[in-house]
Specification:
The strands form two sheets. Strands 2-1-16-15-13-3-11-12-14 form a nine-stranded mixed sheet, covered by helices on one side. Strands 4, 5, 6, 7, 8, 9 and 10 form a seven-stranded antiparallel sheet that branches. It contains seven helices and 16 strands. The chain has helices at 49-52, 142-149, 191-200, 231-242, 252-260, 302-310, 314-324, and strands at residues 30-35, 41-45, 58-62, 70-72, 76-84, 87-99, 102-105, 114-116, 122-128, 133-138, 203-209, 225-229, 247-250, 271-275, 290-294, 335-339. It is globular.
């Protein structure tokens, strides 16, 4: 079993604004690189990525766009998470009590209660789905409504609002839907960096997984999320693996989608639908060789997946180095690359 590091995150290491507001480009964030073969950890900038990968390596990226999924009322905020599987007219929502510029989880609400929403819409609470999420119905189409009345979800470590563009990656493709949160591992990519990777001979392939709202509660497992692994991406993953190349997932969302798409024979197949797959140190990671991700908060369920990919010792060493060298956490923070 690979241990998940137990650590305290100092407030000074929480990224409170995008790197652009700190005088850096998106690809100017730091990049911590850990190598399983040697157990060594190195320090780079994200723009060094082409030099850290080899021709024939494959980066698999999430093309999900970020929705402005938070709607603010006078005293409450409603965070729209995902539609319910098989019940697309119902969405999971989290109610939060507004406190100045921030919000905290709100434990109130009752079955059948309806909330008046901006623009004349109403939200009806139908049943509790988890301790913090409600299954609810909005009186109009959710995604168009969010684009008219919503703002990006902002957690307490971010001190002010930023425009939706700050939460979109270079790979985001607006198909009329999206996720509640940014697939933030891909945020540091720029068009120029993508061009440099292609010139290096690094391959890129897309998939989609729409994320729901995260919880800061420790040990809360991920719930069902919508995903699609296209036929061309599945074929390219198998092509690269057959020729000894490395498949690097850009983000934990990509790992979840690819591992869901692995068949009984260990091959990645085209797949779409809803996934509840959870990757832990006790489960086999069959589709990816490496992971490009952010730095995850103590107790976050994503740490289990990172531990499964990093292997014994490397994750502990990487997180200790990140703390000692002042790396920044969260969606606007620094990056972590795990290589074989």
């Amino acid at each position: 079993m690979t241990p998940v590091p137990d650590f305290t995150l100092p407030a000074a290491l929480e990224a409170r604004e995008p790197p652009e507001a700190r005088g850096r480009g998106r690809d100017g964030v730091r990049l911590l690189v850990g190598r399983r073969a040697t157990g060594q950890v190195g320090h780079h900038r994200f723009r060094d990525l082409p030099d850290l990968l080899a021709p024939g390596d494959l980066l698999v990226v999430n093309t999900s766009a970020t929705l402005p999924a938070a709607v603010r009322l006078d005293k409450l905020a409603v965070h729209f998470s995902t539609p319910l599987p098989g019940e697309d007219d119902l969405w999971l929502v989290e109610l939060r009590l507004r406190s100045g510029e921030a919000s905290v989880p709100y434990g109130g609400g009752r079955t059948g209660e309806w909330l008046p929403m901006p623009g004349g819409a109403t939200l009806t609470l139908l049943r509790r789905h988890t301790g913090r999420l409600w299954a609810a119905r909005l009186s109009t189409g959710v995604v168009p409504y969010l684009h008219r009345h919503g703002v990006p979800i902002r957690y307490g470590h971010v001190r002010r609002d930023w425009p939706l563009a700050a939460y979109q990656t270079v790979f985001a493709h607006d198909r009329g839907d999206g996720g509640a949160e940014m697939p933030s591992a891909a945020r540091p990519f720029t068009a120029e960096l993508v061009a440099a990777l292609v010139s290096r001979g690094v391959l890129l392939a897309p998939l989609t997984l729409h994320t729901g709202v995260a919880s800061l509660r420790a040990h809360e497992p991920p719930y069902a999320e919508r995903y699609e692994v296209p036929e061309a991406t599945a074929a390219l993953v198998e092509h690269v693996r057959a020729r000894g190349g490395r498949v690097i997932a850009v983000g934990t969302t990509v790992v979840r989608a690819l591992e869901t798409a692995v068949d009984a024979h260990g091959r990645v197949r085209p797949s779409r639908g809803w996934t509840e797959h959870v990757v832990t140190p006790e489960s086999d990671v069959r589709a990816v060789d490496g992971l490009l991700t952010g730095l995850h908060a103590p107790g976050a369920s994503h740490l289990e997946m990172v531990a499964a990919i990093a292997g014994p010792g490397l994750m502990e060493a990487a997180y200790r180095a990140a703390l000692d060298d002042g790396y920044l956490w969260h969606e606007f923070g620094d990056s972590h690359l795990i290589l074989p």
